[in-house]
Predict the structure.
Amino acid sequence: MIVKHLDDVIKTEDDIQAETWNSRRLLLKKDGMGFSMHDTVIKPGTETLIWYRNHVEAVYCIEGQGEIEVIGGKTYPIVPGTLYALDGHEKHLLRTEIGMRMVCVFNPPITGNEVHDKDGVYPLVEE
């Protein structure tokens, strides 16, 4: 059994800071669950290009508001209670003026230190 509290992750190596987001990585590949789970803060006044070419992701908004724009497609509002799932590896822009807090689940699981490359992609890391 794995039991963690967000405070166990904050300010550790599993608390990853990027320019537009902060990902507190609660479950990682090393935990053996078959997915990874993150508590992610999207920083206010930001736009982030993201393309999970190597992963599928489900995201559940628990605080704030913003929008997701699928490149070449629709734009969807995000408010607390909104879930979106990137089951088709959709390239997208994530925007917020006031900030958001999201619970994110990835498959395959990430190892922990991944950050988006210039195309918004997390590399597929094999340990």
